[in-house]
Fold this protein.
Amino acid sequence: MRTQVCIIGGGPSGLMLGHLLRRAGVDCVILERRSRDYVLGRIRAGVLEAGTVDMLRSAGIGARMDAEGFPHGGTWVAARNHGFRVDFEALTGRQVMVYGQTEVTADLYAAHDAAGTVIVHQAEGVTIHDAGGTPHVTYATKGETHRIDCDWIAGCDGFHGVSRATIPADVLRTVERVYPFGWLGILSRTRPAAAELIYANHETGFALASMRNEGLSRYYIQAPVDDPLDKWTDDAFWDELRRRLPADVAETIETGPSIEKSIAPLRSFVAEPMRWNRLFLVGDAAHIVPPTGAKGLNLAMSDVAYLSDALIRHYGGEDDGLETYSDRALARVWKATRFSWWFTTLMHRFPEDGAFERRMKEAEIDYLEHSEAARTVMAENYVGLPL
Ligand code: RFL
Ligand code: PHB
């Protein structure tokens, strides 16, 4: 098989890149290691930045998001049993959208189905060859090996994929911070705790009240990453969540059985450069942020915006976008990495935090509440920096 762009990974980055390329007449093939049901079953991100919302609309796949998603004009920050609102709309003129990654992925699949894009699922042993010369990718399905020759390879295969590992160690620079805790998350068919998200800093740890729709809640609490899941019965989870949220919210919260429960590790990670010869890294393949602030999926989408534009212009005869892709993407990645690190540090209890660190965090949260300048900094990062 021959194509112009071979996309490795059919998560949100790969599906969105494929969608934008196909619409512009650039030929591509998507190789995904998992089944479609598996990809659609993963519960992940819940909040889309204003720019991601614009991008989905202008790509022609915003209709269901606009009908079923929930625009949020602000979020709540709580500490020491007191909450205050950060008003995104008043501070930046922009909103975010509560619309799950699962739904974005489903909308992208629907668009690809309608257009007849080649998406190979359960592609095993995907291997990148000769990224500096005549690039090609091999993989196997049902025991048979296949080869795709291409002009470019887009590594959209997430943190554990093969693309980043293909780049020689003396070329790739990485930085990493692993946080000394994880997020224990549950999904439950209950009414959300409040109309908007609540990020809570409590002496026993962080908690987040989020949602997917009027009847589906998503909650997270900071927990040791190696805690066995069976230690966290639903009752134990709800008790700890109620302890950490402001009392007025905790008293009225609706509880019920969890329909999904998992612990995710938290890390900040950036690999650079995001291009090596004819291979580009996109999304989680190049960078990971802790989920505090909801940047991961949105960063994946901004990488896709830069790379799709660069590839489309390349086939129109202009190569400057390809030359600058890595620098443009990384400039935005580093700022989102900073914001996610700041918000994670501010809102969580670290094992090494002493009285001084606790008082510094309390003072900063108090400052955030009472300084419009501080809230503006938070709001413009949360709704998303411009592309
Ligand atoms: P993905 O989603 O990991 O997709 C990569 C795809 O590549 C496939 N793959 C391979 N395919 C072929 N060959 C191989 N060798 C392959 N290896 C892997 C995988 O099966 C997969 O389908 O990366 P992508 O597309 O870059 O998208 C990134 C986002 O998924 C990620 O940043 C977000 O989910 C992060 N995240 C959040 N981001 C937000 O913006 N807002 C949020 O509210 C938010 N909450 C979250 C999150 C991530 C979480 N977890 C567990 C990772 C909450 C959680 C709990
Ligand atoms: C979610 O709803 O899954 C979610 C929301 C906000 C975050 C992280 C995750 O910061």
